Amino acid sequence: MLTAESLSKFLRRIPKRLYWTLIFPFLAAIIVLQYLSFTPIQEFIDRKLFHPLLFTFREYFAPQSLDPRIKIFALDDRTVASLKSFDIPLEDWGLVISHLAKKKGVHIFIDKLFDKKYSQDEVNGFKRIVGSASRDVTIISFATKVRIPFRNAISRETLLGNENTFFKDRQNFPQLTTKEDGHYIYGAGDNLISGFGSFGFANYSGSNFARAYIWSLDGALVPHAALFNAGNLSFKENELLVNQKKVNAKTDGRFLINFASASIYKMRTYSFLAVIDRAKKNLDITVISPGDFVFILPAMYTGNTDFSETPFGTMPGGYSSVAILNSALNGTWLKTLDDPGFFVCIAGFLGFVISASLSPPLAFLLMFLTILILAIVSLSIFTIFGVVISIILPCVVLCFGVVLGTVLSSTIVAIEDQRMKRELDVARTVQKTFFSEHSSDILNLVKVDGVFLPASECGGDWWTSFVDGDFYYVMIGDALGHGVPAALMTATIYSGVKIIEDELRSGGKHILPSEILTKLNKVVFGMQSVYITFQVFRINKITLECVFANAGHCPPIIIPLYQDDKRLPKGRRGKMITHPGNVLGSDVESKFIDHNIAVARGDRILLYSDGLIENEASSKTAVSGKLWLSGLINLVDQEIGGAFKDLILSEYSKRIGLISPNDDVTIVVVDISQDDSNQDPDVIRKLDISTTVTT
After folding, report:
1. Distance CA 610, CA 369 (A)
2. CA-to-CA distance for 278 and 288, rounded, in angstroms?
3. Do 235 and 176 contact (CB within 8 A), yes or no?
4. Gap between the Cα atoms of 26 and 22, Å rounded
5. How far apart are alpha carbons 630 and 612 in whole angstroms?
6. Which of 14, 510, 565, 666 has its CA 20 to 30 A from that of 432?
7. φ, ψ dihedrals at 445, nearest 5°
8. CA 515: distance to chain centroid?
9. How far apart (Å, rounded) are the C-alpha atoms in residues 576 and 568?
């Protein structure tokens, strides 16, 4: 579990050079990503990935609908084919408008610039036909920050007059001042534009956003065309209100269009041909009711439709204006959070914390779960409340944070591993000095050969042998566990034995194995909660008197030279000496007993640690334990010296296979030379020491 202390400890473990190579670049990346959240890059990610996911999810669980007052008429392929023209004369436009306006309260929106060069006679005829119906008609214009050559922008007087249609009293809104980033406004000519009630811009960049209003170079305010005739429009504290409901615009004045699926708009779209025909025949248009909002889209025929990108794919550009009007009528404005920078920073810190507190697999699993939870929460909030919480950049930074933390953790682990490896190399080198080399005494009467296999870099097994006058000492021990802690225990034992050995060689009296164990037990007991099994052999080179004392170690095995030796159980080649004794360190007052064992020339004594018989075999059906060792001795007893040891080691390796051993393994073979003419071979065969070699 992560705490402030553990996080502080983790940070202190980071090498200083990593701050320059990893952490500072990561912080810089967060700042850059936070900055990018205000640029088209953020919009690109949202437009291509996040918004389609949001709207599709909402459409599946909460399908949207259009206000029933909205009616859409399109100048489609059928209309063009019937009229044999891509447009209708200005006089016919006047006829259509006046006919639609016969129904009380009908608001008309025409998605057409009317920027052709109409003659004054055509304009006068249009105005005469439309008459007072023009007050409820809105047409579009477009805005640009660069002047278009050979084209006249809408005049300042016309712009201000249009603004007064939008806001009846400019003086009530002193915060609406001239902006430096003004636009040129183009559309119908001045001689014709006065024949309509109002005009607004209809620019749509395809980013799923639209602007509620823009400023002209002359300081006039131009709203989006879909907002005209939608109801009561006003400003309050520099925020646009439509029918007393705030348009949730970003700080730059843009708002996210509340699109529905394309099928919703298509179901409400009719052919414009019927409107033209019924207007000319003065017949009622039954699909239109008083108070309806009529959208006329004159550019919906093949090859001319201005498709725009939306969360539901490409749609005719006029549908974006329909979606804006729908929000204005229903008050269903979407809300977006302007500044995701705070969430970006939190996500980066969260990713770093996750990777600092968990292993890489768990960290990445938690990262994906966090992203999944954020996605579900974000989708649910949008579906229920219409609030857009962009999680793309926070999720990206979250991933960066996890990767950075993982890299840092891996780097720290690698550095610590290198340090530990160096320390273990030193420990392993030092521990090697604890062990006797393959050796024998000067008369070549007793040979000792051993091998130590640690389960890890260092081990808790230890053995040694040395000569003191007429006596040969052989010792083997096994500290609890393995690795560096166990190796430190053996170092203590090694030091104690070396002191005893030095005392003997400096003229001290010869001591028994039990006395050696008593001295070592006091040393081990003082270490507290440390336990070591140990056994000591002392062999007289002249008389072959063998004294043995055990402190809980594995029973040694005597292997006589001849198979018919009376000491051997029937059918066996080895005899275990079972005098366990107390483990070193278990009790400071432990008593250890010496056992006299008569051995003969040619005898072999096998000493070993419990890892040899207790480590798990690779096959569940393989024979293990003492039974395996007993059967193995029957097979290899004819081998001598190092070959005997190597064969046992080889069979042990075959038994465990590729399984990593749980415990250290030590094998020590003591061979007593048979080259002595003073002993009769027949006497050796008939030697009965069953009273000293116990079963």
Report:
1. 47
2. 12
3. yes
4. 6
5. 12
6. 510
7. -90, -30
8. 61
9. 10
Tell me, rounded to whole angstroms, the distance of Cα 150 from its chain centroid: 59
- Lookup: tokens for 440: 């024998």
Return the residue matching tokens 């919480």: 389
- Residues 64, 264: contact at Cβ < 8 Å? yes
Half-sphere exposure of 682 (CA within 13 A, CB side): 0
Q: Distance of alpha carbon 522 from its chain centroid, rounded?
A: 53
Would you call 492 helix, strand, or coil by DSSP? Answer: helix
d(CA 648, CA 645): 5
Residues in the chain: 695
CA distance 98 to 279: 9
User: Phi/psi of residue 297, each to 5°?
Assistant: -115, 95
Task: Specify the 3-state DSSP secondary structure of 504.
Answer: helix
Helix (H) or strand (E) holding 474: strand 471-479
Q: What is the DSSP string of 248-277?
A: ---TTSEEE-----HHHHHHTEEEHHHHHH
CB 30 within 8 A of CB 397: yes
Per-residue pLDDT, 303: 79
Which element (helix H / strand E) includes 175? none
Going from the first residue of the chain to its last (695 residues), give the mean pLDDT of each consecutive group of 10, the final group possibly shorter.
Answer: 55 52 59 57 80 92 92 92 90 92 91 90 91 87 89 88 72 52 88 90 82 84 84 75 84 85 92 92 91 92 84 90 92 79 72 74 87 91 90 79 75 70 64 57 71 76 85 88 71 82 74 90 82 91 89 91 81 84 88 89 89 80 76 71 78 80 87 64 45 35
Report which DSSP code applies to 445. -
> Across the strands, what pairs with 336?
388
Query: Where are the domains positioned within the chain?
Result: 4-59+339-417, 68-336, 438-686
Dump strand ranges (E) for 493-610: 532-540, 545-551, 557-559, 575-576, 595-598, 604-608
Residues 6 or more apart whose CB falls under 8 angstroms from that of 693 comprise 558, 567, 575, 577, 597, 598
Q: What is the pLDDT of residue 429?
A: 62
Name the helix (H) or strand (E) containing 562.
Answer: none
Residues 6+ apart with CB under 8 A from 241: 232, 233, 234, 235, 247
What local confidence, expressed as pLDDT, does residue 688 receive? 44
Domain 438-686: CATH class, spelled out: alpha beta
**Residue labelled with tokens 């005829």:** 125
Phi and psi (nearest 5°) for 466?
-155, 160
